[in-house]
Specification:
four-stranded mixed beta sheet, binds copper (II) ion, alpha+beta, Immunoglobulin-like, four-stranded antiparallel beta sheet, 2 helices
Length: 133
């Protein structure tokens, strides 16, 4: 019981760090997340990323519903859907894995009715790429 309470308190704090943007800690070097990965937060009514470009190759997004309503997250590149989470209850998280190529633009949005229109969409660029990375 105590564990559940702690988790419910920590999730909004985690989103606050993502939303803050100017936190002292660089998300790119945050412990526990390799550079190829990125955290995505879902709230009413925003999709919040770390904002930095993705590296070409395999990408893992750690998607957390930090809002008060159910949400999901779909990933589309050049009109083709590459990945989608199940509908996540508040507090739930899900990992998405997919591949991207250099210079692609990755669209992220919530597919629930009305949520895209309410503002739940964003996009990430993919780096031009560095050979050998
Ligand atoms: Cu939504």
């Amino acid at each position: 019981m105590t564990g559940r309470r702690t988790r419910a308190v920590l999730l909004p704090l985690g989103l606050a760090v993502v939303l803050g943007g100017c936190a002292a800690e660089d998300p790119a070097t945050a412990p526990g997340l390799p550079a190829a990965d990125q955290r995505v937060g879902l709230t009413e009514w925003e999709v919040v990323t770390e904002g930095r470009p993705l590296a070409p190759g395999d990408v893992r997004l750690v998607v957390t519903n930090a809002g008060a309503a159910p949400h999901d997250l779909a990933v589309r590149v050049d009109g083709e859907e590459r990945a989608v989470t199940p509908v996540l209850a508040p507090g739930e998280a899900h990992e998405l894995s997919f591949a991207v190529a250099a210079d692609e633009r990755v669209e992220l949005w919530c597919t629930l009715t009305g949520h895209h229109a309410a503002g739940m969409h964003t996009a990430l660029d993919v780096d031009a790429g560095e050979v050998g990375r």
